[in-house]
Sequence to fold (402 residues):
Amino acid sequence: MNESSSRSLSRRLVLSRSAAVIGASSAGLLLPQIVRAQSNKIRVGFMLPYTGTFAQLGVAIENGVRMAIAEKGGKLGGREIEWFKVDDESEPSKGVENASKLVQRDKVDVLIGTVHSGVQMGIHKVARDSGVLNIIPNAGVLAATRALCAPNVFRTSFTNSQPTLALGKPMMDKGLKRAVWISWKYAAGDDALEGFKESYTKAGGTIIKELSLPFPNVEFQALLTEIASLKPDAVACFFAGAGAAKFMKDYAAAGLKDKIPLYGSGFLTEGVLEAAGQAAEGVYSTLHYADSLDTPRNKQFRTAYASQFKMQPDVYSVQGYDSGQLLVQGLTAVNGDLSKKAALYKAMETTVIDSPRGKWTMSKAHNPVQDIYLRVVEKGDNKVLGIAAKALADPGAGCKMG
Ligand code: PHB
Fold:
């Protein structure tokens, strides 16, 4: 053995001995650590919009999460909960910083967030880097459950193209062959357009113009004038929250409502029917939920939510509620021990969520496989016309776990 190989052998021995020592000491610590973890509160952080155009969506999600967990005794896997909150303001440039506040400063075990797809990408980076469990209760950015999918990231809502993948056919069934698309110019609008393009053109329709304005602008006037001059058979769109109510009102005020039927990814009419009033009547949309779903599960949920929070639930409340249900089921399976990652993720992957929207399962890429409903606003309610797509899964293209 020459000098260098004997040196490298002794170095290997030292390394393997120290590894053994570390192994022994951590084995010795294992029991007290787990005992401490079990008796400690589980730290759950909300990163949601509490101000701005999506503020009411954040509140609905938080309500839903709390309601689902309270229904099961208010604990997760037997552990009490300590809650943390950060207002993400739907501001993508602060996404990483805000997620880091919860993960690094508050040391949350679970991060529930968020609504806005651009902000989600910040959370996603922090979740992937830290390994912290992230439940996405809304933001539908495709990448999170496609090429950038991750074992510790689960979505309980949708991909932005899921609702619009079901939108094209009902429009063509009504003979609406030439449509204008309009949305905010950011990931969610682009993703929703991807689904619409696929379903509408496959059914034989033509998108004659794609219009957009920056998020969260609500100066729609110039674009509505352009729509009037284009004279399409229909308009299809993606808007949500306060901006959606404003869009429907401006559409009606511009005199378009009775001339050009308005269709949308169903967020258009969620949580805003009171604010939009008459302007929302007759608007068609596709979504994985409808207030008026006539099932005992939905009725029971709606009654309980309304009496608890003194407001009507919407799709965001349902997504929050299902996030809570998913956490309850996952953490029950591991008795609140988040270090049992494989068992935790397995339980979350294989669960069937008994949702007010109808039962749904998790796709391999961790996104709901769910029915999409066709709805129309009638007398201030999203009335269900039927199932536009049964058990629709996002393709999850490019997702490789591990
Ligand atoms: C998104 O940014 O992904 C988003 C925001 C609001 C919605 C739906 C999707 O209602």
